[in-house]
Amino acid sequence: MVITPNIPNLPFTIQNGVKYFELIAEEVQTEILPGVFINAWGYNGITPGPTICVYPGDYVCIRVYNKLPQPTSVHWHGLNVPNVMDGVPEIEPSPKIDPGTYFDYHFEITNPPGTHMYHAHYYTVLQDMLGLEGGFIILDPEASTPHIDRDYYLMLSAHHLVGLEQGVVKQGIFNIDPFAHSSNFFMINGRSFPYTSLLPVKEGERVRLRFGNIGMMNHPIHFHGHQFYETALDGNAVPPANQRKMNTILVSSGTTRDIEFIANNPGRWPLHCHFPHHVSNNMTLPLGGMTTAVVYE
Asked: Which superkingdom is the protein from (predicted)?
């Protein structure tokens, strides 16, 4: 089972062999630090939106309701879907979803197991940067070998909050400037350190970490105390002979990266973006931003 800390998996029903999901695109208010709230856009009341988990061969119908003040669409990033279901109305026959209406995206899962994403693809610069994004995981029905004991999905995001002087973090409700060329708050699954969730493991376990990045920035993610192997990129498995052993991996904009490691060095180990500005909250000096910790139980 894939766990997205702080983010639920999207529930579904099955009718005549089809898996039915529902996403509601709407304005949301979310807490990125204790007492620090942002006005954002998201799905089903949160940003990032709920994680969608399916299997190869599933036939899915994802009904997307639009409760936003402007048209929207959803792009299934990295998935092989029919042109009309791809969610880019300005180019494709895929329709935009007007406010107060819905559209049913229906397609068969033909990709192999892997890590993907979904996000808005209409008025993209505004809607993506306001938070319309989520994870899309194609699970392995064979529970691949070697066995994975812990499987975490981590979505990386960044926003520029307005109304705060640089070097200041205070409680309140803040708007996002989606057109800013820089960000002042950096998040994992919608939260900034120290409000991010810990990633518990046990000694000897094989752990997979899945990273996703829809935003406009790249993030070199560094893991302390361990070496890991890159086992997949953009939802495509890396053959064992080509897997690289490393301790820092670049998660570029628009990409997903999977890494695996053996939990063989007990402790409380940081996992963070290595851009110094990305591990601060609005340039404050204490550690913050795009940081979490792997913790041995």
From this structure: Bacteria
